[in-house]
Amino acid sequence: MKIKSLTLLLLCVCLSLSAFSAEIRLKPLTTGQLRQLYDFYAYHGEKDYLMIPSYRYPALLLSRFPEDYGKITDEKERNALFIKILAPLALKINQEIKQERERLLRLNDKFEKGRPLTSEDERELAELARKYDVFTRLKNEERTRFLLRELLLKIDFIPPSLLITAAAIETNWGTSRIVKEGNSLYKTLVWHTDKGLKPIGEKEDDTYRIKTYPDLYSSMKEFALSLNSELKFADMRDVRKEFLYRDNIPFGSVMAPYLIWKSPLKNYAGMFQYTLAYYELNIIDKSSLDSTIKTDKLPKALKALVM
Question: Is 5 helix (H, G, I), strand (E, B) or coil?
């Protein structure tokens, strides 16, 4: 199938060729400490966040925004730091999606060649179907064919620019209460529970909360999964499929109009496109994580900042 080879080719360009990139998980830091680490790993670039011409981002993974992040008064400086914090997380999520898709392609190839799937293969396929909300009452070979076809549409590249821009709009560039108190990047709501952040100013409806997360990565990963699984984003996935079929990268700017269901704001799509274009975030869609990053040469003071 042509779509298989095209998708794999795109992922080889957009993502690291290594199956697993080295990564450095960081303790809660101040902005000063974070900048020291960025300086050590030469994490700079055009506009201080676009890593060109290398298109490679160091896998420096921060669990939450620095405690003094909100004190940055220079908007240009703050927004650049916001992008630098989230870009490695978005690239890591796509790296994991790539690994899932490669597993799925192996199962599909086996099935297409008429080789029976093992019980382990069936278990893996069922787990992916549950994760990506694919259901059918079909049985046996028809069921397997259906699951493979639907999952191949769902498990694919999510533009990092899309993940970063949506987070910027939802959290006012990392300054809002939801991200400070709950690591929530996308204002995900949960209903009929007292767990989560109570919306400020809500007097008429006390049945919902804003979901909280243990870290920024968890929030972004859940949002990426919703884009790849929920019915309301099916049109966006169809557009992605067409771009991949033509060997084109489905940049965030292409997929952004299909996020109108994400927000009740009337100008959300326009705001999204403007932000994405102004900060040239499509460049990150062509980037990958640096698989060579190490901590062995870190000075002792900086090494203490690593988990």
Answer: helix
Q: Is 272 helix (H, G, I), strand (E, B) or coil?
A: helix
Q: What residue segments make up the domains of the chain, in order of their start?
A: 2-303
Q: What are phi and psi of 239, to 5 degrees?
A: -65, -45
Within 13 A of 219's CA, how many CA atoms are on the CB side? 30
Which pLDDT belongs to residue 263?
Answer: 67
For residue 42, give every residue at least 6 positions away whose Cβ sits within 8 Å of its Cβ, in sequence order, or none.
none
Q: Measured between alpha carbons, how far is 15 from 45 in angstroms, rounded to an integer?
A: 19
Q: What stretch of H or E contains 89?
A: helix 75-112
Residue 64 backbone phi and psi in degrees, to 5? -155, 165
What is the rounded distance in angstroms from the CA atom of residue 173 to the CA atom of residue 156?
27
- Per the document, the length of the chain is 307
* Cβ-Cβ contacts under 8 Å for 148 (sequence gap 6 or more): 104, 107, 108, 111, 125
pLDDT at 195: 87
Nearest Cα neighbor of 182 from 224, 225, 215, 226 is 215
Rounded Cα gap, residues 242 and 245, in angstroms: 5
pTM of the model: 0.89
Helices (H), 155-247: 160-171, 177-182, 216-229, 234-245
Taking the CB of residue 257, how many other CB atoms lie within 10 A of it?
A: 14
Fold of 2-303: Lysozyme (1.10.530)
Give the span between the Cα atoms of 232 and 226, in whole angstroms. 9
- The pLDDT assigned to 262 comes to 66
d(CA 30, CA 211): 25
